[in-house]
Structure to design on (132 residues):
C-alpha cells in the first residue's frame, strides 16, 4: 500500500468515525468539502494521532480554530448572544417606532441573549457512539 493510499484510508476512517457527520454540530458532511479537526489543538500539544482527529464541517472547523473543545463550547453561545446584542443599538434607526416599543423590543433582545449565554453546548461526538 502506498503512503498516498494509506492517507486515503486514514481520511476515510476519520470521515466515518461519526458516520460522515460533523463531530461538533452533527450535520451530514459533504464528502468533497470537509475538514480534519485536531480535537486538542496542535498549539496545545495535540497530536496527529487519529485518536485526536475528527471530521468537521468547514464552518465548525473555522470557528473552533485553535480552541480546545471546552473553549469552543463556552465561546459559541456567548458569541451568538453577542451578535444578537449588537442588533439592539440599530433599533435607534427605527424612526417609525415609539420609544416605548423600542425599549420593549430591546428588552426581548437582551432576554434572548441571556438565554443563549446559559445554553449548555453538547457536541455531536458527545451525543453519539463512535463507529470504530
Ligand atoms: Zn459542524
Amino acid at each position: 500500500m502506498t503512503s498516498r493510499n494509506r492517507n486515503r484510508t486514514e481520511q476515510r476512517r476519520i470521515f466515518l468515525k461519526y458516520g460522515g457527520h460533523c463531530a461538533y454540530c452533527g450535520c451530514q458532511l459533504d464528502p468533497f468539502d470537509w475538514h480534519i479537526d485536531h480535537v486538542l489543538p496542535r498549539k496545545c500539544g495535540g497530536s496527529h494521532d487519529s485518536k485526536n482527529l475528527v471530521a468537521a464541517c468547514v464552518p465548525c472547523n473555522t470557528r473552533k480554530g485553535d480552541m480546545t473543545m471546552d473553549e469552543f463550547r463556552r465561546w459559541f453561545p456567548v458569541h451568538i448572544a453577542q451578535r444578537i446584542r449588537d442588533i439592539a443599538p440599530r433599533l435607534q434607526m427605527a424612526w417609525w417606532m415609539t420609544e416605548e416599543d423600542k425599549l420593549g423590543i430591546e428588552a426581548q433582545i437582551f432576554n434572548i441573549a441571556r438565554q443563549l449565554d446559559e445554553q449548555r453546548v453538547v457536541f455531536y461526538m458527545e451525543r453519539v457512539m463512535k463507529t470504530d
